[in-house]
Design brief:
The structure holds 2 protein chains of 2 kinds.
Chain A lengths: L1 E2 L6 H11 L5 H9 L3 H10 L15 H19 L3 H24 L16 H9 L8 H17 L2 H22 E2 L1 H24 L4 H7 L9 H5 L5 H10 L1 H7 L10 H16 L10 H25 L4 H7 L6
Parallel strand pairs in A: 1-2
Chain B lengths: L5 H37 L4 H9 L3 H16 L6 H38 L4 H26 L1
Helix pairs in contact in B: 1-2, 1-3, 1-4, 2-4, 3-4, 3-5, 4-5
Classes of the chains: A mainly alpha, B mainly alpha.
């Protein structure tokens, strides 16, 4: 259990509030949307002091490097100001799972490690490479250690690369859920449930679209969350639309979907946007908290949504989509 | 010797008035100061406004000091237990209201500091909001003074 003394977050709250004015607001996003070219939209980011000031990523086609830098900067700020290191680590650990996944996949398929390792984890990319190469699992968390051993075990028997994704993604979510539930704060605890529920719904809809069996669905669903698991099981052989209707009948489900209707050819994108917006609405509660952990967590989610929006705009601009189509895909922002 | 003598009870009143109000002010000013430091890290130009808002919850300690001073001035070695009890109870309003009003005022000041970190022009509003809490400390001060007589 991580005990949270809200008063300890007074300094952090001050830092965060002063940083929030630098978040991209509606007018900045409008300028990006109305820009004639991707290059012009990219310039707005420079004005907003995006990234770490690296000269080489002035090219709009290298924007992913800039966004990775911005995320790194955000985590560096949060680690610096949060009095309880476990709080930020709970979020950073997701990136460790990503790195481990990339490394194990490369190792088990005898390929070179692709250059997509991220630096936002609890361990640096090079440290993760060392841990996996030297089998030094002692430093890993128990959940992660177990997952890595399971991957080797299952892969040696089945040779199924999909098992690597399945095992590590599950472990990542389980760890994230446990870590958040471990923090003694109702805002964070409820967030853990929301994340589990939204993830379960997305996984369920995806599994249904691929016509997966009930046994598979039972295996992938995460523990926790506010939605009764029977809702998934009882709809496991019916059309996705039935499941969405059933979900709409529960109070929490209706809030999550926010009026979203789904046909048989369920659009995961629409679902993802609805859930992202729901979580952002939840984060807006943090605006009413003067001193506490809430503004810190909300800032992280604000930044994640902002970066997602920047990616949607720049990808859209590079591919020549109209600003109307791009606008429909944009997530709700914090400021 | 009976420790519950008149002078002892009166001193206790002075102690309560200053101790609680002083503790409340330390908490309030401390909290606002931490948030202020956070804001100043990002934007050092706001020092003036931040300092002004941070200082607001310190008045309770000053009021507590005044009440303690007045009570101590009334004490003489031969005073009756009843007289001591009267001065003890006179210290309570300032002590207790001072404690809570300073902490809450500290929280309003903290929120005010966060407000001016986004809208520097709202300094007047931020101060006014924090001063609303001040009224209760002033009322407590008056009540305590009236009780000391």
């Amino acid at each position: 259990m991580v005990k949270i003394n809200q008063d300890n977050y007074a300094y952090a709250a001050g830092r965060i509030r002063a940083r929030e004015i630098k978040l991209l607001d509606k007018s900045r996003f409008d300028r990006m949307l109305e820009a004639q070219s991707a290059e012009e939209a990219y310039k707005v980011l420079a004005e907003a002091e995006y990234g770490l000031g690296t000269e080489s990523i002035k090219n709009v086609y290298a924007f992913e490097a800039l966004l990775a830098d911005e995320m790194k900067k955000t985590y560096a700020l949060l680690s610096e100001i949060a009095p309880d290191s476990q709080v930020v680590e709970a979020f950073k650990r997701r990136y460790d799972y990503f790195n481990v996944k990339v490394l194990l996949k490369a190792e088990l398929s005898n390929q070179d490690v692709p250059p997509i390792l991220v630096e936002t984890g609890v361990f640096s990319a090079s440290e993760t490479v060392r841990i996996i190469r030297e089998r030094d699992y002692e430093v890993l968390s128990p959940v992660m250690r177990e997952a890595v051993l399971e991957v080797y075990d299952v892969f040696s028997r089945t040779r199924d690369p999909q098992a690597i994704d399945l095992i590590l993604d599950r472990a990542s979510y389980r760890q994230f859920y446990n870590d958040l539930k471990d923090i003694r704060n109702s805002f964070v605890n409820e967030l853990a449930d929301i994340i589990v529920d939204t993830t379960n719904i997305k996984m369920f809809v995806r599994a249904r679209t691929l016509k997966k069996s009930l046994a598979f669905i039972q295996k992938i669903l995460l523990n926790g969350g506010k939605i009764d698991k029977n809702l998934y099981f009882s709809n496991s052989d019916k059309p996705v639309g039935d499941f969405i209707n059933g979900l709409n009948k529960t109070e929490f489900g209706a809030e999550l979907l926010n009026g979203l209707k789904m046909k048989e050819n369920a659009s995961i994108q629409a679902l993802e946007k609805a859930f992202d917006d729901y979580i952002m609405k939840y984060m807006h509660r943090a605006k009413l908290v003067t001193i506490g952990i809430e503004p810190v967590i909300a800032f992280l989610f604000a930044k994640e949504a902002e970066i997602k929006n920047v990616r949607i705009i720049l990808t859209g601009k590079i591919n020549g989509l109209s600003s109307q189509i791009i606008r429909e895909r944009l997530r709700m922002i914090y400021v | 010797m009976n420790i519950f003598s008149g002078p002892f009870l009166a001193y206790l009143g002075a102690v309560i008035a200053f101790l609680l109000a002083g503790y409340g002010s330390s908490r309030g000013v401390g909290l606002a100061g931490q948030t202020g430091a956070g804001v100043l890290t990002e934007d050092p130009s706001k020092f003036g406004s931040v300092m002004l808002l941070q200082a607001l919850p310190s008045t309770q300690a000053i009021y507590g000091f005044v009440i303690a001073f007045l009570i101590v001035g009334k004490i003489d070695s031969g005073m009756a237990v009843q007289e001591g009890l009267r001065l003890l109870s006179a210290g309570l309003p300032m002590g207790i209201i001072g404690l809570f009003s300073a902490i809450y005022q500290g929280k309003v000041s903290t929120a005010g500091i966060q407000l001016i970190s986004k809208r520097p022009e709202a300094l007047g509003s931020a101060i006014t909001l924090a001063l609303m809490v001040e009224m209760f400390a002033i009322l407590a001060l008056i009540v305590s003074i009236l009780m000391i007589g």
